[in-house]
Amino acid sequence: MSGLVIVLGAGVVGLQTAVSLLEDGHKVTIVTEHFPGDESIEYTSPWAGAIWRTHSAHDQKELCQWDIESYNHWMNTTTKGENMMTETGLERRSIRVYSAMPNIDTSSPSLWFSSHVSDFSIIPPTSLPPTCTSGYSYTSIAINPPIYLSHLLSKASTLGAQLIRASLPTSGGLPGAITAALHLARTPLSSSPILINCTGLSSSTLVPDPALYPIRGQTLLVSITPPPPPTSLHIVMHEDPAISPDVTYIIPRPLTSTFVFGGTKIPDDWSSEPDASTTKGILERCRNVWPEICDSKIEVLATQVGLRPGRKGGVRVEVEEVDVDVDGERRGKAKVKVVHQYGHAGAGYQLSLGSARKVLGIVRGIVEGRE
After folding, report:
1. For residue range 168-202, what is the model confidence (pLDDT) as tens digits?
2. Domain FAD dependent oxidoreductase, which positions (predicted)?
3. Topology, domain 90-141+213-310
């Protein structure tokens, strides 16, 4: 059995959900204000650093499973040749995670993922930067967000998705937005449509959900002269809670000669403007953690700001029945099932496949009368 589904939002979570639904035979319409290629502070996914690295605690079993699912899927994708890597923007890349801790305890619950990734190992002290005292490495996946998002959109279009660019009203709350989306998609209530809310941080006003909050990230897209030797092109991260909300990471951007330097994780900060002092701090920290570039020329090509959709209580994936006006008039009410899927914080890419799979299961249950 197949359903008629409207996906609200075209970030990485919304697009992956649309693809998963289409592959299962459902009819899908995507309604969104922003599509891949757009640049807006309201459109978070293009600004991501985008690598595979778990944000999940060992006791968050479902999220851990979602992490593993994306890792296995992407690792498999990178075995399908250069054309597939070019099409998806995915690339295998060693990651080195440095720490200010005196040593790495391999039995620590925080390393729950170590048996699920390739080539996990402890970095010997002689291979650590001067500012670090311990570290570990494994094979990760780096993602070029614009390419990956365009790949998902192209896949959805090829599978038959209807695409509608529109800004949904918030003045009428979620019922008003649903009515507007149904009108845009020319979908009558009698067809029992299902809506998937993948609007991320916008759900704070659309739903509304007061548990949502922004986590501001500032990164730099840079070029390095002379180019670092290929043997040193790792993803580099330095874990140091003492500098929070600042963080330090370097990501070679797939299919380019550029790098992403980061960054920040500032909760409840809605500012969309780059901060010059933050830029200076990012450059200093990245030079310190990657000695090979300490004397190189670093040119900042772009300073980027994105707002991750944090949520108190974590990711929300659940069904809500919403009363909407029949035909937009006060002639009665009809219940529309909405599957909320938002609040992935900074883990949208690595959680997207598992999260979409859960939504697919919910949609199947609704169509079959089990939800």
Report:
1. 998 889 999 999 999 999 998 888 999 999 999 99
2. 5-358
3. D-Amino Acid Oxidase; Chain A, domain 2 (3.30.9)
